[in-house]
Design a protein that fits this description.
By secondary structure, this protein is α/β, with parallel strands linked by helices. About 45% of the residues lie in helices and about 15% in strands. The protein is built from 21 helices and 16 strands. The strands form two sheets. It has an eight-stranded mixed beta sheet with strand order 1-8-7-3-4-5-6-2. An eight-stranded parallel barrel has the order 9-10-11-12-13-14-15-16, surrounded by six helices. The N terminus is likely disordered. The protein binds phosphoenolpyruvate (PEP) and magnesium ion. The site of phosphoenolpyruvate has 10 residues, from helix 18.
Length: about 550
Amino acid sequence: MGEEGMSEPVKLFGVGASEGAVVGPAFIHTVEELEPERESISEDEIEAELQHFQEAVEAVTKKLSETGERLRESAGEEEAAIFEAHIELAEDPELSSGVEERIRNLESPEAAVLAVGEEYAEMFAEMEDEYIAARADDVRDVTRQIAAELMVYEAKGLETLEVPSIILARSLAPSDTARIPKGTALGFVTAEGSKTSHVSIMARSMGIPAVVGVGSALEGAFDTETVAVDGGEGYVVVDPDPDTVAEFERKKEVMAEERATLEEFKHVEARTREGRRIEISANLGSADEAEDALSWGAEGVGLFHTEFLFMERKELPSEDEQYEAYKKVTEAFGEKSVILRTLDVGGDKDLPGVDQPHEENPFLGWRGIRMSLETPSLFKPQLRAVLRAGASGNLKVMFPMVADVEELRKAKEILDECRKELEREGAEVGLVEVGVMIETPAAAICAPDLAQKAAFFSVGTNDLVQYTLAADRGNERLRNLQSADHPAVLKLIGDACEAAREVGIWVGVCGEAAGEPGLIPKLVELGVTELSMSAPSIPRAKKVVSEL
Ligand code: PEP
Ligand code: MG
């Protein structure tokens, strides 16, 4: 951080969540803590307050669906989908029953909804999957809106924005970003958040720079008038001097030129100069993201996370519901390959319907394939849904957290069992190739044996890095140990590629490293032939490959 020297402007570092460089006036968005007007109610108020709560839920749902509709027209499906997910949260029967129980115990409805919201949010926040953990903010956002409705509280601020500005805030919820008048947000800077928080998703789809996760240091900058934001490098300059402003102007020009060049790479097939074909695919969190990924030039789906279907609700999805979701994404991609990863939740995630033990060390616990193999009630319906959806396109399946060849053997055995069952039932099933994620050092070391039983490998660098370097992937202090660009990690990826080559199967990478321009040449050199990443990173990855 550059605070040395009198004239040196203060630089704050965070996570680059949406590319671009901008200098502009700062608009500080502070949220007043929403305190319940009353903590308790009397016995004779119970019925009226239960009614009051239901009305507030309906009012919030109505507002959310209006905002969703507006965004569907003005911004796109992805933004609208956020509001649909919020409607589901607002109408969640467990949330309602939790609040109603508290009201019956004489808690005021506003205190009850805030408390239940916080309980849920904490449960989400503890989950190790960054994407799911980010949903904690959604729960807080929705329950705050219901509490605000109950107290006839009008949140003010962002909707008053007139001068195009860079918005600085502790965090920005979807309901905040939706209130910003069109064209007035030049960038976002938040103290909290990760690349997969909604503020980051919003910024990327609005095409404005964002730096998130700056930490509490950002609050020290809340008296600033101007800021410069570099959403690619992930830093912010507070009250930039003329030299910094000039530097940012140059960056803007370079980026504008780069964006224009990248446009032409969106829909090309990525090949190295020698003609080696590298498939550039997208990582998807839900079937609704398929169209957007295709528009960025995705040549397939390298990782379809199935966790959301399970986590964003309070009961397990049925086989049919899973089938519909898997079929939707498979059909959207037609002949292109879609790789679905079976459920990857860990011992710290409270999955409804599954008896999960408390674990001292969930990262090293009962997660991924370990849990699936021991929970046929969870695993079999998922595999049956996959096999059925496989009939509508080019669907493949892979297993997470494999550390032992025996796990792959058992998983394939269960898959075969499901196939036979379905055939007996006369259901239509697809071929569905089976792959393994290489995300434990054990899997990379045992790659020669795994390769005998798999149709492909997909390297999960996020976990492979944390397990190889013994560095918790979520610990901000260990940033220098959180890159796949480490000899030990590259050695393991190289070993897996070598083992795959021996038997003629292919290797992809679906962790964050796949979209990092600096790492792509190394991965390709090691023998990787598929790279799967967040959709907006696709055009640049294609360009990098084409220059190799
Ligand atoms: C990985 O570990 O690299 C991966 C892709 O899986 P996740 O990030 O979901 O653990
Ligand atoms: Mg992983």
